[in-house]
Amino acid sequence: MSNVAKDTKAITTVQCPTCKTKVEWVEKNTHRPFCSKRCQQIDFGDWATESFAIAGEPALDAETLMQGYEEE
Fold this sequence. Notes:
- This protein has one domain: Erythroid Transcription Factor GATA-1, subunit A (Erythroid Transcription Factor GATA-1, Chain A).
- It is built from three helices and two strands; from the N terminus they run αββαα.
- It has a two-stranded antiparallel ribbon with strand order 1-2.
- By secondary structure, the chain is mainly alpha-helical.
């Protein structure tokens, strides 16, 4: 086996969840899995405005959460 084959690593690519651009999964890409800070912020905004949600019943309802705060 040559030295070139030993030193070559396959670079994983993923799709940016926001714009679907191919993104290399490498340490220098600080926004991974996103292609850019812009796409990262768009995704965060979607979660913050509840455009996205995790399926299923909430683990705690609002009343239970408020009871926890009142006890402190």
